[in-house]
Amino acid sequence: MTENSTKTAGTAAEATGDSAASEADAPAVSLSRRRLLGTVGAAGAAGLVVGGAGGAFGAVAAQDDAPKLSTVGASEVAFRADRRTPQAGITTPMQARCHLVAFDLAPGAGRKGAAALMRRWSALAEKLMAGKAPADDSGVALDAGPASLTVTFGFGHSFFGRTELTARRPMQLDPLPSFSADALDPKRSNGDLWIQIGADDALVAFHALRALQKEAGDTARLRWQMNGFNRSPGATAQPMTTRNLMGQVDGTNNPKPSDEDFEERIFVGRDADQQWMRGGSYVVLRRIRMLLDTWEKKSRAEQERVIGRRKADGAPLTGGDEHTAMDLNKLGPDGSPVIPADAHARIAAPESNQGAAMLRRPFSYHDGFRDDGAPDAGLLFMAWQADPLRAFTQIQRKLDRGDALSPFLRHEASGLYAVPAVEPSGYVGQPLLEG
Description:
Layout: H1 3-8, H2 12-16, H3 33-45, H4 59-62, H5 71-74, E1 97-105, H6 110-129, E2 150-156, H7 157-162, E3 193-199, H8 202-216, E4 220-229, H9 262-266, E5 281-290, H10 292-295, H11 300-307, H12 344-348, E6 359-360, E7 363-369, E8 375-385, H13 389-400, E9 409-419, H14 430-434
Helix pairs in contact: 6-8
């Protein structure tokens, strides 16, 4: 893997599960690497940089008599490495909070305005991820360290027309096809520019969101914004795969960074038609509302048959633990498959899709209640892959034809974005905008 990927990647459960357990509620007496690794576990340590410089804005944390940040607050994810690497926020262990936001370029901004904006945004993101405050800071996160903050930038299909760069638009950004469960709101979909913000502290995440929005100035206008969450660090006794709002362990069968073909599946190779995307990735975003009132009326046994896994621990119905391979050929006493033919886990499995796979990194959301009293809640599904046509589209088409879970879901917003690698210097997207 590339250096940045190796630095921020954990196991499949780590890349999509809870942030690792930590002593979030107790001040750390020592932040030695040994203690930090022992405290946050492998998942959290994969993306951390140890030291006070990323803490309470440098000088304050360096004072001997100043209170030390907890391991949650002190954890830092690097914005860039010493060579081209994938952006943070792809293989970075899951954080507790997420903001997703899309902007459209203002009329007349064009390529020059977009380049200036990406230069400003990249500089700001690098500063924020290091736990430093901008010059005109609001003070929202003044007491906190970086808290595993990541800021990830992407370009939508429409960005290339607005910047007169259609000749450099990858074919992988061609619009996604329609699916039967789609009830898409165009006002909450797509967008020229996309930002993913993740952090283990809500105020740190909001601070970054607000700072980036203000930095857009008159160059880009907000199109939509979404808020997501996962478990907080230390909420579970040990690092584990996260659960979604249906109560299911979510992300078990993710590709693992240790897999031989992980980079090939998730990151764009050197032979890319558009060289500016080499080392980058494509993310599909789907805001999926869960029909929880209907789902929760099902018995646990019925829910497990829909998913194909046990609810308690995520193990396949064919036995073992969460990471035991599914035995898709195993039959029950009545001669029918133990994992039903329409079970979600069976249909979405690489074995059922000619090896197609994507790195899921979802967040849950809850936006209040609808007029009928049902929760407006579900999943901000994000899937990373080298080629959406061969991964997301192929798998979703199969799910669309007979997934037992589909009747409990409504896809209400959608987006597809090119997320280029970050350079050792300069700004995100510079090879595209200045090439």
